[in-house]
Amino acid sequence: MLKTLEKLCLLNSPSGDEGAVRDFIIGEIKDFCQYRIDNLGNIIAFKKGKNTPNAKILLDAHMDEVGLIITSVTSEGFLKFATVGGIDTAVMISRRVIINGNVTGVIGLKPVHLCHGDEGKKLPKADSLYIDIGVKSKEEALSLVSLGDTAVICGDYVRSGDKILSKALDDRIGCAILISLLKEESEYDFYATFSVQEEVGLRGAKVATFAVAPDFAIILEGTTAADIADVAEEKQVCNLGNGAAVSFMDRSTLYDKGLYNLALSSGIPCQSKRFVSGGNNAGAVHLSREGVRTVAVSVPCRYIHSASSVADIKDIDSAYKLAKYLILSIAEKKV
Length: 335
Fold this sequence. Notes:
The protein has 8 helices and 17 strands. It is an alpha+beta fold. The chain has 2 domains: 2-65 and 167-331, Aminopeptidase (3-Layer(aba) Sandwich); 67-153, Elongation Factor Tu (Ef-tu), domain 3. The strands form 3 sheets. Strands 1-2-12-3-13-16-14-15 form an 8-stranded mixed beta sheet, with helices on both faces. A 6-stranded antiparallel beta sheet has the order 5-4-9-6-7-8. α1 (2-9) crosses α4 (169-183) and α4 (169-183) packs across α8.
């Protein structure tokens, strides 16, 4: 699974441009399940198990990552951009980016020695940043890129002991887990969606869930961990190494209490997500049709939505085991 995760993280697929990850996933799962692509670009898969449960079970992971989109070009050939998804300005400054998979640039800003007063001591506004691709004119820039082209901040995949450092761990972790579940034998049937455009408003999951019409859903995600220096314990959200984080509430979902309690009593190392913030595809999934009983199983990630998010291998294994346990428990009516 970790080899699959590495390959997924090194692909570039910002929201609305998920083709590279989608093609890779199809190559991995095509011999192990039935699948189709919907009009929005979601992969909707069906895994035939040894038995058919009375309830329809869906597992979801999103394919997209945060990125940038080119909005204009200056006369000098610098590219102005908007963020696609939530990216903190601090993690963008002086970072290398790749546009359309083949044009390399760097995110630049005014040099500190040209700043006035306290200007150089403050975080610049996002709209003051630009991408420098090394050209000298607007015409030269437009021969390489077009308005609406997307970019991602470059980040290597590094294994350091039991930690992984990489871009796009949110949510290539969920994709890697879901690929593994589809490739192995399953005791019960289940559906799987690899959804698009989560980072810009849970859009893919909304239409994919409507198509599947599940009774239960398990959302596989990466989530913020703030277990770092000078952060109070109650605000750390979750801790690396303590297992998958199971949510009771976030800004888009109040989670099913039966599924939440089932996960925490599973005997598999896991933890409660201790801070009400953010959201994920559950916000769209649990409101589909007549409602879907939903749980989120997330892998804690420090520095999420940056070029070097950090996750613990033990937590990835915990999320994988917990997903398998929940499929079995739901199918056997333990909740």
